[in-house]
Amino acid sequence: MTPVDLWAFEKKAWKNGRARIAGIDEAGRGPLAGPVVAASVILPPDASIQGVNDSKQLSPAKRNTLYQLIYAEAVSVGVGIVDAAEIDRINILQASLLSMAMATDNLRPQPDWLLVDGRFSIPFHLPQQPIPKGDTLSISIAAASIVAKVTRDRLMVQYDLDYPQYGFSRHKGYPTRAHREAIRRHGCCPIHRRSFKGVEAPD
What CATH number belongs to 8-152? Predict the structure, then answer.
């Protein structure tokens, strides 16, 4: 099986005259609690970060190591965060796309081409290419997936200090059996997504 060239999309964009290509991904569409977090990453052509892959394929320790390397080597990194209340207001798909637009808006310098994980374009004024399963096909998107995942996990560890009864530091808000049981016992807290099935309002 021929290995995937994770630089293929970036190389094509550079060949077509683009100078700064941003890969964009999000973390946290599935949890019952917490924000959705996106990252947008511009890597230089000479970046030499080994082991970058879809964040879901990496251990927490490996993600944390790569997170530091990505910040050290990237031209720019932007992060966008949309909280649970906004997710409930506009739905998780729109919140995910909004978080990716926010992350891209936070890049300095701004990119001139966007590689977006998934099937949808984001609400942003720059030219872009949606790539299904992009976090396994583009190094820039994979780097963004790592930054988004690590950032979100760290936020959930902080939320665990505020709401220790839910175990957010362990499951990061995902619908585990322990999390569902904690919701059943305690009701929901301010960072729960009340529009999601399985989240019950407190009595």
Answer: 3.30.420.10
